[in-house]
Amino acid sequence: MEVIDLFSGVGGLGLGFKLAGFEVAAAVELDPGRALVYKRNINPIRVINADVRRIDFSRFSNVDGIIAGPPCQPYSSATPKGSKGINHPYYGLDLEVIRAVRQLKPSFVVVEEVPGWSPMGLTKELSSMGYSTYAKVYDMSLYGVPMKRRRWIVIALMNGRASELSIPTAKPPKPIELLRDLPTDPCTVDPCSFNGRLVFNHVNASINSNLKELIPKIPPGHSLVTAHRAGLIDVSKYVKDIEKKHSYWLYRVPIDGLVKVVPHPRRSMMLHPIYNRMITVRELARLYTFPDWFNLKPLSIDEMYRAITDSVPPLFAQRLAEALAKLL
Question: Looking at the domain assignment, is residue 232 inside a domain?
């Protein structure tokens, strides 16, 4: 079955569907670098680097499904209050999915969005067009992803009962197990060779900060702020208004347990669970369940970090697609 992938990013959702046996007929992505990464790794029939609002979807009349992850910024808790909702330029882009559905009349629709978004407008429109709809906030840690990432998933089926969707649960691996066989130090070239194999994107940014001496004291699973609040370290003489800092600043990935979702890993300086350095792009990609062959070049290091965190973890997307295929 063929799908069109809207707001595709680098392809977390699209990759999951492809691994589940679907064909990507087209991917639509506004950012040219992310569109190129999608093209090189997922190899869809077509990649369209354009604003979704300018696309005439009627040219894809033979596709079976629409999958979409509209921009989350208008609804995200990480967005400043003054820029959220109708004040954000991306507000209302989820309604472009409805326009695509009206033009294509696909057999199924899948939409992913942050918990702060409401699916009611979307499901109401889909129901009025004859679709069976189902919306639920899924905790992806229950399906093999080693982080407590919660997202709305909306399913709409033209023939069938969307509420019958059932994704098998799976225990996620420990974060340290996912990172164990990568080089201790970041690579100076990308890709680099390690133990006879190529390693893509094992690069990071250095921490140039007067807080370097405090970094070794941050325990796994804590940030500088939460460790201070717990009385594990005292940073009040180093940082003014430490209580006002966000809780993922200098956050160290846990050795065991679930990883905290950090919206800006580069800006927040997300730390390796053991080594006193920033986590590398490849390490972050593994935590998000991207396969090692997935190469995020030619994006910059900062863009790689953001592209990963903006993505649906491919493992969850694959399990979702496999469960959907059974209903179809």
Answer: no
Domain CATH for 58: 3.40.50.150
Mean pLDDT, rounded, of the chain = 93
What tokens were used for 196?
A: 């006879």
Structural domains of the chain, count: 1
Tell me the one-letter amino acid at 46: R
Integer Cα distance of 105 and 154 in angstroms: 16
Q: Is residue 317 part of a domain?
A: yes
Do residues 251 and 222 lie in contact, with contact meaning Cβ atoms separated by under 8 Å? yes
Beta-carbon count within 10 A of 31 CB: 18
Q: 159-189 in b/e burial notation, b at 16+ Cβ within 10 A?
A: ebebeebebeeeebebbbebbeebeeebbee
pTM for this prediction: 0.94
What is the C-alpha to C-alpha distance for residues 328 and 322, in angstroms, rounded to an integer? 10
37: in domain = yes
Catalytic residue numbers read 72
